[in-house]
Structure formats: C-alpha cells, structure tokens
Amino acid sequence: MILEVADIRIQPGQQAAFEAAIQHGIASVISQAQGFIKAQVQRGIESPERYLLQIQWATLEDHTVHFRGGPLFPAWRAIVGPFFAEPPKVEHFTAI
C-alpha cells in the first residue's frame, strides 16, 4: 500500500466551494481509479487555505502511471484545479 499526500493551497475565500468540489471529485472520479483504496481530506487550522489530501493506492504505479496517465486525471483536475493557488506538492509514502 502506498500513501499519496498532496499539500494543496487554494485561493482565499474559496473553502466551502473547494470542499464540495474535492468531495465530489473523490466520489465521482478518484474512487473509480485502478488501485484506489481510500481518501481523506484535512483542512488547515492555522492556514485555512491549506488542505492535505491523503489517498491510499494499492501500488505506486496505480497513481503515477494508471491514474495520472489515464483519462481520469484530466477529469479530476477539471473539478479541483480551478481552486488551486499554486500546483499541489505531492509525495508518496510507504509504511514501515
């Protein structure tokens, strides 16, 4: 299992709309991806325009090759991308 962590910064004042959009994008797009296990979104307290998206994938390639290289990625970005203040910072982790 691989954990993807995306550090997302959105435009000020867009929290409610972004939260609705990201939940919609997870339910309608990401959940359909090969190797998707589960997702969770955390909102920053000190930085209210900052969110952490955590997605569990079966393999690294399920995210980097199948999802990012397939038709679901543009659909996902069309839903959440307009809210981004900057490109998300994405890293992958594995359990020890």
UniProtKB/TrEMBL annotation:
Entry-linked InterPro entries: ABM_dom (IPR007138), Dimeric_a/b-barrel (IPR011008)
Alphabetized UniProt keyword annotations: Monooxygenase, Oxidoreductase
Gene3D superfamilies referenced in this protein's UniProt entry, alphabetically: 3.30.70.100
Keyword Oxidoreductase annotated: yes
Keyword set includes Cell division: no
Annotated ABM domain residues: 2-93
Name of the featured protein: Antibiotic biosynthesis monooxygenase
Organism of origin: Kinneretia aquatilis
